[in-house]
Amino acid sequence: MFNGFSHSVKGASHEKTGLVCQDSSAYKVCEDYAVCVVADGHGSKKHFRSNMGSKFAVEATISTIDRFYTEKEKFEESLPKNYKKIIKNIQKQIIIDWNDLVNAHLEANPVTEEEKSKFTEEEFDAIPPESYYGTTLIVGVAGKNFTFGVQIGDGTLVALFDDGKAVMPMEYNEAAPANVTASMCNSNAAGMFSGFYRDKQKLIAMFTSTDGLYTSFGSEFDFLDYHTIITSQLLDLENFKKIIVNNLTKRAHFGTEDDISLSCIFDNDLLVEKRALIEAEVQANKQRAADRKAERLKKHVETE
């Protein structure tokens, strides 16, 4: 039985400048599949509707996965055999749906004089309309016999499979090659996705988050340990939601001061079964963290 949660927090830097939260997040759980998704609207001035762009990216993702599951038996049978092709088709469909939502919004809400006032006429004319809505996207999907994810732009996906270890199946991606920001608004967006697919391991929990969460940690070790800890707390979901909202809010105000979004899906039955394993992994991570700290202190002493 799948369950999940999602939450977005405005960063302190946006509160200081009066900007809206440019992140969006959502999750959907059904009997046969679950989706967790976050999107981070770009901050530069040409992406002045990026808060709407991130919202549309989340909506386009959910609608796309729902549509692929319309023929559940066919989809579940085909995916393991042709996952590269099918996931590529999912990526393309998300882009198509996103562009449809962007175009519909722009038609109903033409650019205002106030929005144009931040640019010279030449500057504004050079901006492709879809760039107004530029955003990243990170998606995790769990079925009964497989797990996959897709991503464009920065942000992270963390998964805990049945061995209890937190991993990032897709590497943290700060920028595309040549320092070009990978974005839903790029003309070649469909070719800028990264992804992963697993069908040999059962999924306990999967998290997607915008880059404000990752950059609030001192190391990747700490970041992954955090996900193991919060996985161990998921069985008391209502209490956990209060804890995680408070924690994300603190990180958005005293960490990088950026917007933060976190979305999660998990298999409640498997989490119950693996509870002792997860708790043991939490304790092992604490010991490894202590060992790393001791090693750093040792090296510091040796260099003095």
Explain how this protein is built.
The protein is of the alpha+beta class and 304 residues long. The chain has a single domain (2-303), classed as PPM-type phosphatase domain (Phosphatase 2c, domain 1). It is 46% helix and 21% strand. It has helices at residues 12-17, 50-68, 72-108, 113-116, 121-125, 211-214, 220-232, 237-254, 268-273, 275-303, and strands at 2-9, 23-29, 33-40, 137-143, 147-152, 156-161, 166-167, 194-198, 203-209, 260-267. Strands 1-10-9-6-7 form a 5-stranded antiparallel β-sheet. Strands 2-3-4-5-8 form a 5-stranded antiparallel β-sheet, covered by helices on one side. A hairpin with a 3-residue loop joins strand 2 and strand 3 (33-40). Helix 2 (50-68) runs antiparallel to helix 3 (72-108). The radius of gyration is 20 Å and the shape is globular. The termini are far apart. Mean pLDDT is 92; it is low at 174-179.
What topology emerges from the helices and strands here?
Elements: E1 2-9, H1 12-17, E2 23-29, E3 33-40, H2 50-68, H3 72-108, H4 113-116, H5 121-125, E4 137-143, E5 147-152, E6 156-161, E7 166-167, E8 194-198, E9 203-209, H6 211-214, H7 220-232, H8 237-254, E10 260-267, H9 268-273, H10 275-303
Helix pairs in contact: 2-3, 7-10
Search tags:
304 residues, alpha+beta, Phosphatase 2c, domain 1, five-stranded antiparallel beta sheet, 10 helices, 46% helix
